[in-house]
Design a protein that fits this description.
Elements lengths: L5 H5 L7 E2 L2 H8 L11 E4 L3 H14 L3 E4 L14 E4 L7 E4 L4 E4 L5 H9 L3 E2 L12 H6 L13 H4 E8 L4 E3 L5 H8 L1 H15 L2 H11 L11 H4 L3 H9 L7 E9 L1 E2 L3 E9 L2 H6 L1 H5 L5 E5 L1 H8 L17 E9 L2 H16 L13 H12 L1 H7 L6 E8 L5 H15 L5 E5 L4 E8 L4 H20 L18 H20 L54 H16 L3 H17 L6 H5 L6 H11 L3 H12 L1 H16 L3 H15 L24 E3 L5 E6 L2 H5 L8 H12 L2 E3 L11 H6 L2 H18 L7 E3 L2 H10 L7 E3 H9 L9 E6 L3 H6 L2 H11 E5 L13 H4 L1 H16 L5 E4 L2 H11 L4 E2 H8 L5
Parallel strand pairs: 2-4, 3-4, 19-20, 19-21, 21-22, 23-24, 23-25, 25-26
Antiparallel strand pairs: 1-2, 5-6, 6-10, 7-11, 8-9, 8-10, 12-14, 13-14, 13-16, 15-17, 16-17, 18-20
Helix pairs in contact: 2-21, 7-8, 8-20, 18-19, 21-22, 25-31, 29-39, 33-35, 35-39, 37-38
C-alpha cells in the first residue's frame, strides 16, 4: 500500500476520501492520452478550502500534485505520479446568471451539463470541444478548449469573465471580485510584483510582441497564454487569463464564470465527399470566405471506419474509401432568410468542386445528429479499430489555412516515410487545425526510434509552415520539450519565470508544459495489454464516465477496463501480489457494484458495454449452489414470483426495522451480493398475472398485440394507484383495442434476473420457454409483443431478437396506437419524469415525454437525470449504489415542488421513490387517471 505524507492526510476532513489502495491508484492512472503515470495516492477533494490546505501540505512535503476531473486530456496533463486530486465528484455546481448570458460553474461539471442548463435560455458555452459529453469545465479552462465552431473568438480565453483560483500557497482568490487586485496585492505581494515585471518585459520587447500576436492569431495551446501580457494590465485579470491553458501547473481552478454565446437556431448541414484529401483542403479558403460556421475534415481512413458503423451519414457510404476525404460543412444563422443566403454561397462553391455526389444542405435535425455523432466520436471510433495491444496516439497542430493543404500532404509523406500506414487525419479545417493519429506498440528501440524521428520531422514541418505545435489539446508532456523551439529562448524564459512565480516549489503537475528533459515526450508511454474482447478496443477516452451509476461510489466503465489491463500486465510480469490485491478489491468495486445497465454503451464511440464484461465475470464466478437454485427458479418461476409477492405482503405488514434486521442477519451470513436488504420503499406484493385471463382490453375486437405483463409488477405491487399492468389493460379497453395474454404467463420472464447475475443455465431455460410461448401467442410473429416495464421490454427484445418477432414497450405502443383514440385531461400541474436506462436504449423517451405532456401541464426531466441503478435487485443488494447514482437527480427534483412523479419501470419507480421520498408511479397510471370519465 502506498504511503502519503501525514500532513496531506491531515488536511483532508474525511479520511475515507484518501485512497491509497492499489485498485484506486491504477484506476486513476489512465487518462485519454498515450501516457501512463500511476499516482502514489488519490484524494477526492470536497471544496476549494480543502484543496488549499492540501496544496500547503504538499508544498511542505514536496509532494507533486495533479488535478483530475474528466480525464479526457490527450497530451498527458491529467495524469501524474505523486498525489492526484479528484476534483470531479465534489465540484459539480452550475449557476446560470443573467438569463443565460453568463454562467458560473465548478470544474467537475461537463460541457454538456452546462449547456443543458443554458439551452432553455437560448445560450451555450463558447468552447465546443468534440468531447463535450465528458470533458469538464476544469479541463476546458486548463486546456483553453476551443472546438469545432468557436475558433479563437469564442474559446475559453476569450469568453472568460473570472476564476476562483487556489494557488500553490493555499491562497484562494476570486479574480472577478471588485477587490481582487487589492486582495492579491495584500496576500501575494511578491507574486503581483513579479507578474507586472514580466508584463513589462514582454510588452517592451517588439520581437516578443510580434511573435505572440502571430502565434495567437491561430488556435494555440502551446506553452502558457503569453497573449495575456498584451491583453490585460491588472494583476487579477492577468492572473486569470494566464491560468487559462496552464494545465494545472500554475493554480487550481475552483470555479469559472463565462460570458455565453447565443444559440443561432437556423442551421444547415451537408457532408461533401471529395476525390482526394488535397482537393478537400484546397477548397477550404473559398468556403471559409462564405462565413461558414464549421468545416470538419475527415480523410479516407476516417471514412472507412465510418462505413463500418451503424447510423453514420448516407453520404459516406456506397463507395470504396481509398483516397477520398470529406468536409462536414455547416452554416448557422438567426433566421431562415439569412441561412438561405449563407448556405446558398456555400452550395455555389461546392458546385464548382469535383465531388462524388452533389452536396445538398439539409435542415433535418436527424441527419445533422448522425453527421455530428460520427464526427464527435471519430477519434475513439478510429482508435477503437486499431489492432489489439497497440496504442492510439493523437496529435493536434494548426497552420495558416492557406498552408493546410501542403501541410496535410507533408504529413502523409511522413506517414509513409516512417511506416505509419494506418494513420488518419481529421479536424477543424476552418481554423487550419488538424488532428492526426498514429497507431503502434510504443515500446522497444525500433518503435520508439521511429516515433522520435517522426516527431522531430513533424515539428519541423509545422513550424516551417508558421504553425503551432498544439492548437487545442494542450502542451502536456507530449510537446513540453518543444516549447522552447516554438517560442525561442526569450519567451521560454518568461514562461519558466512565470512557473517559478506561481509554483516556487514545483509541485503543480511537474513535467507538464515546462520540462528540462528533452526526451520527456518519450517516457511513460502506455504499452497496453490485450484483455477480454468485450472491452479490448477501449481507448480510455472517458466518454462513458458521466453516465455511469457507480461513478461516485466505486469505479467507472473506463476504470473497470484499465484495472483489468493493470491486472493482466501485472500477471504477465509475474507480480502475483499485485494481481491478488487487484482481484480481491475488483469483486466489489468492479463486478458487484456495476449496474449492468448498458448506459456506458450509449456514450461509447466504439459501443463497448462494460456491463457485458461484468456479466461474464459473474457467470464465470457463479456460486454453483446459487446457480442451481436460480436454475430451479427458472423451472418454477410462477411459484417463485407468487412466493416473493406473498413475502413482501407479509413484510409490509410488519415494522420495517424488524424485517430489515432479519435481512441484515442473512446478508451477514450469506453475503451482501446474495441477500437483498429490505427497505421502507418496498410495497406489498402484487396480483398474479394469471388473473388477467387470455384476453385483455376491449371485448369483441380482434387482438392487435400480445401482452406480456412484467413479473416485477406482479412481485412488487403498486404503492399508490393501480399499477402499470392494470392501467395498460384499462387504456386498451377505453381505446377499443384488445391484446392476447400467452398461456402460462405466470411462468414467463424476460430473463434479465439470470443474465445480469451470470446464471447461464437458468437463462437458457427461461429463454426457451418464452420463445415457445410467444411464437404460439403471436402466431409466429404475426402480432407484436408489448411489455409494461421498459427493462423487461429490453430483455424480451434480446431474447426474441432472432425470432423475427417485434417487441414494443407499452409506453411506445400507447403513444402510437392508443393515445390517438383517447381524450385525456391533465391530472397534474408539474410532472417530474424519470426516463430509464432501458427507455433510453430502446429509443422510447420521446413517447414517454409525449404521454407526460398530456397528463400534466408541464413536464420536466431533470438535467441531472441518470440511471437509478436499482437494476432489478441490485439496488436492494447494494443500496449504496442506488443512493450514489440518484443523489444529483434527487437533489434537483427536491426543489421543484412537483405534484406528480413518474417513470416507466417498476423497480426504477422504487429506486426513485427511495431517493426522493416522493411516490413514483408508471406514467401509464397517470394516463389512466387522465382518461377516466369526468377526469
Amino acid at each position: 500500500m502506498s504511503v502519503l505524507a501525514p500532513e496531506i492526510t491531515a488536511a483532508v476532513a474525511d479520511v475515507s476520501r484518501v485512497r491509497t489502495r492499489a485498485i484506486d491508484r491504477v484506476a486513476y492512472a489512465n487518462d485519454a492520452s498515450h501516457y501512463l503515470l500511476t499516482p502514489d495516492a488519490v484524494v477526492v477533494a470536497a471544496d476549494a478550502a480543502e484543496v488549499g490546505a492540501i496544496l500547503r501540505a504538499a508544498t511542505a512535503s514536496a509532494t507533486a500534485v495533479t488535478f483530475r476531473s474528466g480525464g479526457t486530456s490527450l497530451s498527458g496533463q491529467s495524469s501524474g505520479a505523486g498525489l492526484l486530486i479528484d476534483v470531479r465528484q465534489g465540484f459539480g455546481r452550475i449557476d446560470v446568471l443573467d438569463g443565460g448570458r453568463r454562467v458560473r460553474s465548478q470544474p467537475g461539471a461537463t460541457v454538456r451539463q452546462v449547456n443543458a442548463r443554458l439551452l432553455r435560455h437560448g445560450h451555450r458555452l463558447g468552447p465546443d470541444p468534440a468531447s463535450e459529453a465528458a470533458c469538464t469545465i476544469g479541463g476546458v479552462v486548463a486546456n483553453n478548449s476551443s472546438g469545432m465552431a468557436c475558433g479563437t473568438e469564442e474559446n475559453s480565453y476569450r469568453t472568460l469573465e473570472g476564476l476562483v483560483l487556489v494557488l500553490a500557497s493555499g491562497t484562494v482568490v476570486d479574480t472577478a471580485a471588485p477587490d481582487a487586485d487589492a486582495v492579491l496585492r495584500d496576500r501575494e505581494p511578491a507574486l503581483v510584483a513579479g507578474l507586472m515585471r514580466l508584463r513589462e518585459r514582454v510588452v517592451g520587447d517588439a520581437a516578443s510582441v510580434s511573435l505572440i500576436r502571430r502565434q495567437f492569431a491561430m488556435k494555440n495551446t502551446m506553452g502558457y497564454a503569453l497573449n495575456a501580457f498584451l491583453d490585460f494590465d491588472t494583476p487579477a485579470a492577468l492572473l486569470a487569463h494566464l491560468t487559462v491553458g496552464s494545465e494545472g501547473t500554475l493554480a487550481f481552478v475552483a470555479e469559472a464564470t463565462f460570458r455565453t454565446v447565443p444559440i443561432r437556431p437556423a442551421v444547415a448541414t451537408t457532408l461533401a465527399v471529395f476525390p482526394t484529401l488535397d482537393a478537400a483542403t484546397r477548397a477550404l479558403p473559398a468556403l471559409v470566405s462564405t462565413g461558414v460556421a464549421t468545416l470538419e475534415l475527415m480523410d479516407a481512413t476516417s471514412l472507412r471506419v465510418g462505413q463500418r458503423l451503424a447510423g453514420t451519414p448516407a453520404a459516406i457510404h456506397g463507395f470504396e474509401a481509398t483516397a477520398q476525404a470529406a468536409l462536414l460543412v455547416e452554416y448557422h444563422a438567426d433566421d431562415a432568410p439569412a441561412l438561405r443566403e449563407l448556405a446558398g454561397a456555400g452550395a455555389h462553391v461546392l458546385a464548382g468542386e469535383d465531388l462524388l455526389d452533389a452536396a445538398v444542405f439539409s435542415r433535418d435535425p436527424v441527419q445533422r445528429a448522425a453527421a455530428w455523432t460520427f464526427r464527435k466520436g471519430l477519434y475513439a471510433s478510429v482508435a477503437g479499430a486499431r489492432p489489439s495491444g497497440t496504442t492510439a496516439l493523437l496529435e493536434d497542430v494548426v497552420v495558416p489555412v492557406a498552408r493546410l493543404a501542403d501541410t496535410c500532404e507533408g504529413l502523409q509523406q511522413l506517414f509513409a516515410r516512417f511506416g505509419y500506414s494506418d494513420s488518419v487525419i481529421f479536424g477543424h479545417a476552418k481554423d487550419g487545425n488538424i488532428h492526426f493519429m498514429l497507431t503502434d506498440r510504443f515500446e522497444g528501440a525500433k518503435a520508439l526510434g521511429r516515433f522520435e524521428g517522426f516527431t522531430e520531422a513533424m515539428v519541423d514541418l509545422v513550424l516551417d509552415a508558421g504553425g503551432n505545435l498544439k492548437a487545442e489539446h494542450g502542451t502536456g508532456r507530449a510537446m513540453a520539450p518543444y516549447v522552447r523551439r516554438q517560442y525561442g529562448d526569450e519567451l521560454y524564459d518568461v514562461m519558466v519565470e512565470l512557473k517559478r512565480l506561481l509554483d516556487p516549489s514545483g509541485i503543480l503537475n511537474p513535467g507538464v508544459i515546462i520540462s528540462d528533459d528533452p526526451g520527456a515526450h518519450m517516457r511513460d508511454l502506455k504499452t497496453p495489454v490485450s484483455i477480454e474482447p468485450e472491452a479490448d478496443r477501449c481507448v480510455e477516452c472517458g466518454y462513458c464516465e458521466p453516465v455511469c451509476p457507480s461513478r461516485s461510489l466505486t469505479l467507472t466503465p473506463r476504470q473497470r477496463i484499465v484495472v483489468r489491463r493493470a491486472s493482466t500486465a501485472a500477471r504477465e510480469r509475474g507480480d502475483g501480489a499485485l494481481v491478488a490485491e487487484l482481484e480481491r478489491d475488483y469483486d466489489y468495486d468492479g463486478v458487484q457494484t456495476c449496474a449492468v445497465d448498458g448506459m456506458c454503451q450509449t456514450a461509447c464511440p466504439v459501443l463497448i458495454n462494460t456491463g457485458t464484461l461484468m456479466k461474464r465475470f459473474r457467470r464465470e464466478d457463479a456460486n454453483p449452489v446459487l446457480a442451481a437454485g436460480w436454475s430451479a427458479a427458472a423451472t418454477g418461476w410462477g411459484a417463485v414470483t407468487r412466493a416473493g409477492s406473498a413475502a413482501l405482503t407479509v413484510a409490509a405488514a410488519l415494522p420495517t426495522p424488524l424485517v430489515r434486521t432479519v435481512t441484515d442477519a442473512a446478508r451477514a451470513v450469506l453475503g451482501a451480493d446474495t441477500v437483498p436488504r429490505y427497505s421502507a420503499e418496498l410495497p406489498a406484493g402484487g396480483a398474479s398475472r394469471r388473473s388477467l385471463g387470455s384476453r385483455v382490453g376491449a371485448a369483441g375486437v380482434e387482438p392487435v398485440a400480445v401482452f406480456l405483463p412484467a413479473c416485477v409488477g406482479s412481485m412488487f405491487g403498486a404503492s399508490e394507484g393501480i399499477g402499470a399492468t392494470a392501467a395498460f389493460t384499462r387504456l386498451l379497453e377505453r381505446a377499443g383495442v384488445s391484446a392476447v395474454v400467452p398461456d402460462g404467463i405466470d411462468a414467463l420472464c424476460c430473463g434479465t434476473p439470470w443474465s445480469s447475475k451470470g446464471y447461464a443455465k437458468g437463462h437458457a431455460t427461461m429463454s426457451a420457454r418464452v420463445r415457445a410461448a410467444v411464437r404460439e401467442a403471436t402466431r409466429d410473429g404475426a402480432l407484436p409483443v408489448v411489455c409494461d416495464a421498459s427493462s423487461c421490454t429490453e430483455g424480451f427484445a434480446a431474447t426474441l431478437r432472432d425470432d423475427g418477432i417485434r417487441v414494443l414497450d407499452a409506453v411506445a405502443f400507447t403513444a402510437s396506437d392508443l393515445l390517438p383514440r383517447l381524450t385525456p385531461t391533465p391530472v397534474a400541474e408539474l410532472l417530474a419524469l424519470h426516463p430509464t436506462c432501458s427507455s433510453t436504449q430502446l429509443g422510447i423517451d420521446p413517447a414517454l415525454r409525449a404521454i407526460g405532456a398530456v397528463v400534466a401541464s408541464e413536464v420536466r426531466v431533470p438535467d441531472a437525470w441518470g440511471c437509478c441503478a436499482y437494476a432489478g435487485d441490485r439496488g436492494m443488494l447494494h443500496p449504496e449504489l442506488t443512493e450514489a447514482a440518484t443523489a444529483p437527480e434527487a437533489a434537483e427534483v427536491a426543489g421543484w415542488g412537483a405534484d406528480a412523479y413518474a417513470s416507466c419501470n417498476r423497480t426504477c419507480e422504487l429506486g426513485m421513490t427511495k431517493a426522493t421520498g416522493e411516490s413514483y408511479v408508471h406514467v401509464l397510471e397517470l394516463l389512466e387517471r387522465a382518461t377516466r370519465s369526468g377526469a
